[in-house]
Amino acid sequence: MKPTKLIARGLAFGLTAVLMLAMTVQAAPAPGAEPYQVELRPLEAPPNVEAIIPVQGRLLDASGHPVTDGPYDLTLRVRDGTGVLCTSGPTSVQTDNGLFIAHLSGCSSSIFDGRPLSLGIQVGLDAEMEPVQTIYPVPYAMSLRPGAIVANSDNDGHGLEVKGSAPGVDSALYTENNDADGIAIWSTTTSGNATVVIENFGSGPLLKGFGGDGGEDEFRIGNDGSIQSKTHSTVFVPGIEAVIWTGSHQDTTLDNYQCGAVTVHPGQTGIAQRILIPVALPGVLYGQPVRVESLTVHYKTSSALTYISSTILWRQTAAGPGDSVSVFLDYADRTSTTYTSYTLSEASNNIIDDGNGLLTVELTLIFNSLSDTITIGGVDISLWHHSLNAD
Predict the structure, then answer these.
(1) Residue 65 neighbours by CB distance under 10 Å
(2) I want to staple 294 with a disulfide (CB 3.0 to 4.6 A). Which of 14, 15, 378, 382 is the partner?
(3) pLDDT (tens digit, 9 = 90+) per residue, 310-368?
C-alpha cells in the first residue's frame, strides 16, 4: 500500500560529537585460567563534519497505520517563497514500523540564512506529501554558543560569511565588548598576506572610526586611499631659520644657538625692524588638502619696553615679489621677559590645496635700547587635513 501520510518529521540542525569505542571481549576462561582480557580501540573520527542534515519521520498508509517495512525511495526538497532551492535524492531508506531516517545533503549552506524555509517529501513516484514541514532552528542554532569556533581548512572560500541587505545604515556584522579592557574584534594571521582586507565597491570611504566624545567621525580611510583624521599635524620651524627682511634696518644682527633659537640684536632703536621665518608646508597631506589652523610663536624679550609689535603669516600665491595673501594678522604687543608663546587661531586664506605650501612668518620688532634683545625659539603651525574640520 502506498504511503500517503508522514508524521513526526523533523530536522535536526545541531551537531553531536560522540566518542565511540570498539570493544573486543574474549570467551569465558576455564577455571584457573588467566582473567578476562578487554581490548579497547578508539574509532577514528571523520576528518570533517559533513554538510548533512538528518531527517526523521514515520510513513503511514491511508488508514493511518505504519507502512509495510521495507525500502522506500524518498526525495527531499527545501524551498522558500520563491520556489525550490535544493533537491536531495531520491535516496533509499529502510523503515522500521514506519520509522525512517533520511539525510538531506547537497544543499548549500547559503540557503539557511534566516529566511523562512520548508521541507517537502516525496515517496517514490507519488506526489509530494502535504502539508510541507516548516524548518525550525534548534535553540543553539539561534545564537552561537560562547567560545564557538567556525573552522574551514579544506574548502575554498571564507571560513564564515555574514551578509546583510537591510536598508539604511544597519550593518551586516555588529560586535560589542562591554569589558573595560576588552577588544571588540581581534584579527590575526600567519600568512604573508594582509591581516584585514576592506573593500567598498560604492563611493563611500573604506573605513570610518568614531570616538567616545559624541560619536562624530574621527578617522577615515577614503575610497581613494586618502587618510583623513581629526587629529592635527604640527610643523615646527626653529628660530635659526630666520632672516632679516631686506626692508629692515641693515645693522640688525642675528645670533644663532645650538638649540635652534635665534637672538635678534637691533641696528637702531625706535624704528621697526623685521625678520622673516620661512615655512614650507605640503599642499596635500595624506591625500587631503591642508588647512592652517593656528600659528604659535615662542619668544622672550630682554626688557618689557622691547617687544614684538606685529605678527603676520603670509601665504605665497605666485613666484613674483609681493604675490601673497595674509593668513594671520596680529598687532598685539608681545612683551614677556620670560620664555613663553602666543597663538593665533582666526585665519583667512588658509586652505593649502593648490600645491603651494610656501608660508612666511613676519615679525615686527621694536627695541627700546641698543642693548636690548628679542629671542625667537621658533614657530609652530598646526594643520588640519580632514574635510569635517572645515565646520
Answers:
(1) 12
(2) 382
(3) 999 998 887 666 788 899 999 999 999 999 999 999 888 888 765 567 889 999 999 99
Comparing CA positions, the residue from 156, 383, 364, 117 lying closest to residue 264 is 364
From the list 220, 271, 242, the residue with the least C-alpha distance to 375 is: 242
Which cell numbers in the block locate residue 125?
A: 513516484
Q: How far is CA 71 from CA 5, 63, 91, in A?
A: 16, 20, 10
Q: Provide CB contacts within 8 A for 172, sequence distance 6+.
A: 162, 163, 164
- Summarised one tens digit per residue, pLDDT across range 138-194 is 776 767 667 777 777 666 777 777 777 777 767 788 888 888 888 888 888 888 888
- Cβ atoms of 361 and 265 closer than 8 Å: no
Residue pair 306/368 in contact (Cβ under 8 Å)? The answer is yes
Look up the pTM and report it.
Answer: 0.58
Please report the domains of the chain, with CATH numbers, ordered by start residue. 5-139 (2.60.40), 188-225 (no CATH), 233-390 (2.60.120.260)
Question: Could you tell me which residues come within 8 angstroms of residue 162 by beta carbon, excluding any fewer than 6 positions away?
Answer: 172, 173
The partner residues of 208 in beta bridges, in order of sequence, read 220
Across the range 20-30, mean pLDDT stands at 36
For the record, the C-alpha cell of 353 comes out as 590645496
355 contacts: CB under 8 Å, gap ≥ 6:
283, 284
Left if phi > 0, otherwise alpha if psi is -120 to 50, otherwise beta: which for 64? left
- Please choose, from the candidates 71, 78, 53, the residue with its C-alpha nearest in 3D space to the C-alpha of residue 128: 78
The rounded Cα 340 to chain-centroid distance in angstroms is 42
State phi, psi for 389 to the nearest 5 degrees: -70, -10
Asked whether the beta carbons of 264 and 375 are under 8 A apart, the reply is yes
